Amino acid sequence: MSSQPEKRFRRKFGVEDELSRYVSALYEMLGGVLGADKIVLRAGKVSALKMMRSQNLPDRLCALARLLFEDPTIERATTRAQQRKVLGDVEDAMADLLAQRHAESAIDKRVSERMAQRHQEYLNDLKMEALRESGGPETPGTQAKLEELEALSQRSLAASALQQLRPQSLREIVGQEAAVKALLAKISSPYPQHVILYGPPGVGKTTAARLALEVAKMRPHTPFAKDAPFIEASGTTMRWDPRETVNPLLGSVHDPIFQGSRREFAEAGIPEPKLGLVTKAHGGVLFIDEIGEMDRALQGRLLKVLEDRRVRFDSSYYDETAPNVPEYVRRLFREGAPADFILIGATTRDPDDIDPAIRSRCAEVYFSPLTQSQVVSIVQGAVKRLGAKAARGVPQSIASYTIEGRKAVQIVAEAYGQALYRLHPGTRGEVVKNPTISEDDVTTVVQTSRLVQHTPVRGRAVREIGKAFGLGVLRYTGSLIEIEAVAFPASQTGKGTIRFNDTAGSMAKDSVFNAASVLRAIAGIDVADFDLHINVVGGGNIDGPSAGLAIFLALYSAIVKVPLPQDVAITGEISIAGKVRGVGGVIEKVYAARQAGMRRVLVPKENARDVDAALSGVDVVAVTSVDYALRELGMNKRSTRRSTGSRRKAPRRP
After folding, report:
1. Backbone dihedral region of 393: left (phi > 0), alpha (psi from -120 to 50 degrees) or beta?
2. Start-end of H helices in 13-79
3. What is the pLDDT of residue 281?
4. Which of 40, 179, 532, 572 has the smallest C-beta neighbourhood within 10 Å, fewest atoms?
């Protein structure tokens, strides 16, 4: 009895001719899917070409199965059951093939649409690029911003007062003739030297460096070209970056990933070297103001550049063999950037704050503090450059509030503005061409700026018991140290006390103990019999032993009741043997004493040669011991030793 599938097969293909037509239809469908050429190639691979062209139905059905399954081992189906099974498998395979082709067609359609879209975007980009090349990168928005920027650029205020009043030639720098001459000698020779300028603030170090290069360019033997650059930098703003990502002084390398480079470099993954100030100063002068404020690590890297005269670059992103690296980038990584320049550094710090290796490669020039008469001269020159006049006493009044030329010029500019406001308080009338700056204008500036006189203590031709004037220096600026001492008999013999400012520092206390020992050794005075109080007026830390002699004299005066002259300033360290030892900053201290109106200055004999012989208006007395200092001051009532000293009186200014 026949099965149900066989009955359905017989009903569907009851006649063999109908089955043959059905197989032919399947061939046509397969040809539509694969194509005639591909069918022929596949038939050759599976040995079905001859069977496919046969008129025998089993052969054609076997060839169709081999084509669909790509299996040359499929055998001919001779029975109805076998043909039914093969035909079912063929129908399933044909359905899978048609579904696959439908999906591929849908995907191909989407791919074609996306490619057409990308192609259109690419064409649009090309059109925009062509428009930018022909019309530039400007848009209405950027054009409006440009017009706004141009409008802002057309409005400007006058130059700042400091720029207007800045010296325009080396001759206009007051009080630094020797320093300027030394600077010119060092940079205008055929073999210029690196230079470090030391000195107090506001005395002309920056201006001298800038103008010295212009003078050096005109010398016949100068190595500087006419267009030699002068590059300025500030040591206060330069910090060492251990990652070396940013270094405006020496230069750095911008990697294409984290920091970003120009578009053509970033897209190609090429690190971009950024040149620093040392390369911009090549062939000229690199001026670093406040070089003492720079990090020591950065000073060390600068030293390497001074030695090599080149800056080396390195980056882990750089590939020397990459074909897309520009030649100038290759050269920077291979040879480095040129950095052959003359370094001029300026600082108000001590030489110890500069890297010793840099100092050893630089000449050192010291700028002197300004005297009151020199500040007066600066004020008079500033008033003249402003086209104004100054009432009698105005220059001297301004000079009493500062010893800095820059600050004096600033006070002049403010007083000038105050004079204009006084003459024209609220109207737009005719401006006075030559306004006169009055003392009231200066007083108004002083009060609003809360300025105090630079040297409130002045020397007086009187004597006082227990009061001496020591001398100190901070960053090349000298100052007076007012020392007071009082002595009372101890309440119990041998149990006296000593009181001293705690804020004065340990070295000053050591000076007190040294003075006590010298009093006992030299004058036979036991300080244990007295209650002593030593006071440094105004407080402050005395970082050094230079107040030792002044402390001794104040104690001696207070104990023996012999007054000290109040127009004498004193500096020097004392040993427990009563010797006066040399100290630092003597020149600045003598300037401070003269600024305060002192008639005489006692200095250690070891420092006598340091004092400028051109100083006028003050007697410089060199002493070797406390005995000589007491005799020089007329206080040797209880002195038991004889000593020698020397005295030098500087010529007075005519």
Report:
1. left
2. 16-34, 36-45, 49-52, 57-69
3. 92
4. 40
Separation of alpha carbons 615 and 591, rounded Å: 8
Distance of alpha carbon 308 from alpha carbon 312, whole angstroms? 9
DSSP per residue, 326-390: -HHHHHHHHH-EE---EEEEEESS-GGGS-HHHHTTEEEEEPPPPPHHHHHHHHHHHHHHTT-EE
Residue 45 annotated to the active site: no
Q: Is 380 left (phi over 0), alpha (psi -120 to 50) or beta?
A: alpha
* Per-residue model confidence (pLDDT) at position 568: 93
Average pLDDT of the residues in 67-90: 83
What is the rounded CA–CA span in Å between residue 245 and residue 603? Answer: 52
User: Helix crossing, 405-423 with 372-385: angle to 10°?
Assistant: 40
Which residue of the set 546, 557, 625, 639 is catalytic? Answer: 546
How high is the pLDDT of residue 270?
76
Q: Which of 368, 589, 625, 639 is catalytic?
A: 589
Which tokens sit at 436? Answer: 């006169």
Distance CA 554, CA 508 (A): 14
pLDDT band per the 50, 70, 90 thresholds, residue 430: low
Residue-wise pLDDT for 13-54, tens only, equals 445 677 788 888 888 888 878 888 888 888 888 888 888 888
Q: Whole-prediction pTM value?
A: 0.69
The pLDDT score that the predictor gives to residue 266 is 61
pLDDT digits (tens, 9 = 90+) for 260-290: 555 556 666 778 788 889 999 999 999 999 9
Dist. CA 27–CA 29, nearest whole Å:
5
Averaged pLDDT score across all residues of the chain: 82
Q: How far apart are CA 97 and CA 88, in angstroms?
A: 14
- Residue 4 tokens read as 């149900």
**Residues 192, 429: Cα–Cα separation, whole Å:** 55
How would you write 155-181 as a 3-class SS string? CCCCCCHHHHHCCCCHHHCCCCHHHHH
